[in-house]
């Protein structure tokens, strides 16, 4: 938000306030701190820490990522990768030219092992065949970005239409055909996690190709993703970031005077929950989209222009959750990286909607095997959508009991499984939401970011982080 009229110029330069201390807010602050025209800069962060959805915690004898997990497309065109490299946070392998040149197409790698809910292992050859089909169709969806019109409104509808045509050409027996559809359904669940949505039917087809896929093999931070935002905070002048300072209302498009600045007028006054006010010339808003949706009617005074309010309402906001399970002994093979779960008798071509309390866990895509911490063995599960939100209503004990039973059921008949199937510690966390385009809102993100006469705002999310 900025002034456009003849508002008094501050003798010491323009005053700028950044609302939100996530990576978007810290990035804006870094850029402005290097500019002589903005000597007065503050970042207001509502919580006691910076980083937003980048959150690393010490648990299970090591560091786990409660929020953002990977750098996707770690190569020269990725600003997150460049920052991490500049701060010396990545290892030799991650920085190698070989790693940066790997073309993944933006797709998740194949699982190390795939279990059907019946307890049988699914052939990795069949999984690879279905992955090839699914990701080829995902690639096709990106081709409609600049099309005059799309054959169907959503990504999900397009995928199901194309899969339905492929199914007619399958010549295998009925059991194999059902298994193929179940595997494809697991890839739909995985894509829901990637896109941060309950269903791919809610993701608009036209703008889906806006996501830029960069080369590079996805990598992690050995000492925690939060090391990146910690370095960003440390690079700012002392006391730039003010913690535990939630903002109540941004009063803008006005002419405000403050006793601390006699003779000066400011177009913006930022009011905090504790009553403090910050008079400034410019405000950069980087709060999460979910917060904007919840507080849209009270956060801005006067209200935002209609096109910006409409954009905030139309851009979808989904939920991802991570579940961490600790085991005394691993039941998976030493080289296992990703365990896929395939739910029998499911199909992306059927709109079955069982009661959440009976089947929420069937949205679980499986588990990523985290690097071993000394003698501790941890799996990280991912789940998205309404099932994820339902899980948030359960206690840790209820989630633990359910997932322990699931793991025992799917792996018990497997002769190569070894070790304990009982997890001793569980943490499920609801702070890992991601932003996705839903409801055909192709132009809404552009409308939100486009500066208007008196207002410019930015919705914080983690498109490029996890």
Features:
globular, Polyamine Oxidase, Chain A, domain 2, 2 domains, cytoplasm, FAD, alpha/beta, disordered N terminus, FAD/NAD(P)-binding domain, Amino_oxidase, 466 residues, four-stranded parallel sheet, flavoprotein, Flavin_monoamine_oxidase, six-stranded mixed sheet, disordered C terminus
Structure description:
- The chain has 466 residues and is α/β, with parallel strands linked by helices.
- The chain has helices at 23-33, 79-86, 92-95, 97-100, 124-141, 155-167, 174-195, 226-235, 289-299, 306-314, 356-359, 385-391, 396-411, 444-449, and strands at 15-19, 40-44, 56-59, 62-65, 113-116, 241-242, 247-251, 268-272, 277-280, 282-285, 300-301, 316-318, 320-327, 338-342, 366-369, 377-384, 423-429, 434-436.
- The protein folds into two domains: 15-52 and 71-76 and 222-315 and 441-449, FAD/NAD(P)-binding domain; 112-216 and 316-437, Alpha-Beta Complex (Polyamine Oxidase, Chain A, domain 2).
- The protein is built from 14 helices and 18 strands.
- The chain has a six-stranded mixed sheet with strand order 5-14-15-16-13-17, sandwiched between helices. Strands 6-2-1-10 form a four-stranded parallel sheet, with helices on one face. It has a four-stranded mixed sheet with strand order 9-8-7-11.
- The protein is globular and about 85 Å long.
- It starts with 14 loop residues before the first strand and ends in a 17-residue tail after the last helix.
């Amino acid at each position: 938000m900025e002034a456009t009229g003849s508002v008094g110029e501050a003798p010491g330069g323009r005053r700028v306030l950044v609302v939100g201390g996530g990576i978007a807010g810290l990035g804006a602050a870094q850029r402005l701190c290097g500019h002589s025209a903005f000597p007065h800069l503050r970042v207001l962060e509502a919580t006691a820490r910076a980083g937003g959805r980048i959150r690393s915690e010490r648990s299970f004898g090591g560091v786990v990522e409660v929020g953002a997990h990977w750098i996707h497309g770690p190569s020269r065109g990725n600003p997150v990768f460049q920052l991490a490299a500049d701060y010396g946070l990545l290892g030799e392998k991650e920085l190698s030219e070989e790693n940066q040149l790997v073309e993944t197409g933006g797709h998740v790698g194949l699982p190390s092992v795939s279990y059907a809910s019946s307890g049988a292992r699914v052939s990795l050859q069949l999984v690879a065949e279905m992955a090839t089909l699914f990701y080829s169709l995902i690639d096709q969806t990106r081709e409609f970005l600049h099309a005059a019109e799309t054959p169907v409104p959503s990504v999900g509808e397009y995928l199901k239409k194309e899969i339905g045509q492929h199914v007619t050409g399958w010549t295998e027996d009925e059991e194999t055909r059902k298994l193929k559809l179940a595997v494809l359904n697991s890839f739909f669940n995985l894509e829901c996690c990637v896109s941060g949505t309950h269903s791919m039917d809610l993701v608009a087809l036209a703008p889906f190709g806006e996501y830029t896929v960069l080369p590079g093999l996805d990598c992690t931070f050995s000492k925690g993703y939060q090391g990146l935002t910690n370095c960003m905070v440390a690079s700012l002048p002392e006391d730039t970031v003010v913690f535990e300072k939630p903002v109540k209302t941004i009063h803008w498009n006005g002419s405000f005077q403050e006793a601390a600045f006699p003779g000066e007028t400011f177009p913006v006054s930022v009011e905090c929950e504790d009553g403090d006010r910050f008079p400034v010339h410019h405000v950069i808003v980087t709060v999460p989209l979910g917060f904007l949706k919840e507080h849209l009617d009270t956060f801005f005074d006067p209200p935002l222009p209609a096109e910006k309010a409409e954009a905030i309402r139309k851009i979808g906001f989904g939920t991802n959750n991570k579940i961490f399970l600790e085991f005394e002994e691993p039941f998976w093979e030493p080289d296992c990286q990703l365990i896929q779960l395939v739910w029998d008798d499911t199909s992306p071509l059927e709109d079955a909607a069982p009661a959440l309390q009976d089947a929420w866990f069937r949205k679980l895509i499986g588990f990523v095997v985290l690097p071993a911490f000394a003698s501790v063995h941890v799996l990280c599960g991912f789940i998205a959508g309404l099932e994820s939100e339902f899980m948030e209503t359960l206690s840790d004990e209820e989630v633990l009991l359910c997932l322990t039973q699931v793991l025992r059921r799917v792996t018990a008949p497997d002769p190569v499984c070894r070790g304990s199937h009982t997890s001793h510690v569980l943490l499920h966390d609801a702070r890992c939401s991601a932003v996705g385009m839903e409801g055909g809102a192709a132009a809404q993100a552009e409308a939100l970011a486009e500066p208007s006469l008196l207002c410019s705002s930015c919705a914080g999310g983690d498109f490029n982080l996890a």
